[in-house]
Every structure is written in C-alpha cells, then in structure tokens.
Automatic annotation (TrEMBL):
Protein keywords: Oxidoreductase
Statement: the UniProt record of this protein carries the keyword Nucleotide-binding: no
Pfam families named among the record's database cross-references: Fer2_4 (PF13510)
The keyword Oxidoreductase appears for this protein: yes
Protein name: Putative molibdopterin-dependent oxidoreductase YjgC
Molecular function as annotated in GO: iron-sulfur cluster binding; oxidoreductase activity
UniProt-listed SUPFAM superfamilies: 2Fe-2S ferredoxin-like
InterPro entries attached to this UniProt entry: 2Fe-2S-bd_N (IPR042204), 2Fe-2S_ferredoxin-like_sf (IPR036010)
Source organism of the structure: Deinococcus humi
Amino acid sequence: MPELTLDGLRVTARPGTTVLAALQNAGLSPLRRSLSGEPRGALCGMGTCSECRAVVDGVTVRTCLTPVRNGQDVRRLLEVNRDF
C-alpha cells in the first residue's frame, strides 16, 4: 500500500487510487483557494474542471488524474495563487 504525505499528514492509500481520493478519504477539503480566496474542490473528477489542483512533489497537478505513489508529498493550494 502506498504511503504518502498530505499537508504533513502521513497516510496510506489503496493502490490504484488517485491523489484526490486520498485527500478526500483523509477529510482534507477544500483543495485550493480561488483568486478571490473562495474555497474550491473537485467538481468533475475526470480532469476537465481543474478545480482539484494541488502540488505533488513540487509540481502542480490535477489530483483526480494523478495516481498515488509511495513517498509522494502532496500540498493543497490554500494560499491565493496568481500563477495560473
């Protein structure tokens, strides 16, 4: 079973699941903040809406399309970020 870190919290996830599922199973929501500071979370779950973005091992990804891997470091985007 992959072990990963979600905002500093060590968790175990089922193999074949996504980072989004690991975040939701850990009760970590919202996933990010909009430019105006509103809480945002996954809407579509299939990579279309991009609302589930987070930083995995230093790279911003859509968590619903990112499979869990052992040793990942996942950080939610809770600060307003104007880089996108």
